[in-house]
Design a protein that fits this description.
By secondary structure, the protein is α/β, with parallel strands linked by helices. It contains 12 helices and 18 strands. Helices cover 28% and strands 28% of the residues. Helix 5 (168-178) packs across helix 6.
Length: 397
Amino acid sequence: MAVSCIALIVAAGRGHRFGGEVPKQYMPLGGVAVLRHCLSTFLSHPRVGQAQVVIHPDDRALYDAAVAGLALPPPVDGGATRQDSVRLGLESLETRKPDYVLIHDAARPFVDGPTIERTLDALEKTPGAIAALKVADTIKRAGRNAAISATVPREMLWRAQTPQGFRYRDILAAHRKAKGKDEMTDDAAVAERAGLQVALVAGAEDNFKVTTMDDLKRAERMLGGAGGGQAGETRVGTGFDVHRLGKKQDYVMLCGVKVPHDSGLIGHSDADVGLHAMTDAILGALGIGDIGSFFPPSDMRWKDADSSVFIRHAADQVTGRGGAIVHLDVTIICERPKIGPHRAAMAKRVGEILGIDPSRVSVKATTTEELGFTGRREGIAAQAAATILLPLGRMPG
């Protein structure tokens, strides 16, 4: 029987050290909310079945905008403290009965697949496991007036990160036992107080927590943005798709929008050539195959599927690698229907699906002057280009 795992993303903090009106987990990072970066990594991991987010009740509008298009259950309202928020999140999972839970701070956007893998592997042997880094610097203890009072041996010291993974029933019981008692700084401390053994696994330097505005600037530099071009890599991919007209319906799906027409496009899915071309462009920029590699037409699961599923998956492959979509450009090639009246709606819809600003989406159209199959109105074609940013050291593969 397969072991089930749910990622519990804690996004209920107010970020007082960060400053500003928008909590740090909802701040844009490479055009995508910080929260969405870490969510995409967990959602694309083959050993994580679901993600559940815990939010502050006042942040619902920010949350909805940040996760638009992602397959997520409704968020859970957090409590007065982080410890309360985690407990409420854990209790919300009781009916789903996961074997494992990975608890992660929403403000750590660059968690990676190998760290998740190591944490889950350790849970096969111990009740708990956390990502952490060995302390490399010499540690000093300060006395009065910031004078050094002692040098602390560093050999046994680690810096804790998240995810912190646990066997679900064990950590739920530990949090319930800790309710109303002293606030502890992380979930490993809650587990330790309950007598659970917690293992340390190697974390990653990139998996830092965005706490201050300087941290966010560092994260932008890692993505190659905000003047940090030396720290990241820009990639460009292209895509092309064609579908035949002839389906008995009164619209065509183009870039996620129903456009009135005298017949529809024929395909295994909804035959949205615009979204298909953009999907291939994103996958091409990553160098990880094409739409058929992930959604083969021989698989009946994708019969009549909404193509937004395909492009969301491609985009999640980008954010799951710590990257961001900078721009999408698609040209629709047809004699009819006229695309101009629908361009703004198409850009807006693509932006909604991907959680990016519509200004990062360009929709154009052209004809072939009545030449070829598009000129004879036998089909519609689309070609697209995608520009993405990836941080160095976190390339595809």
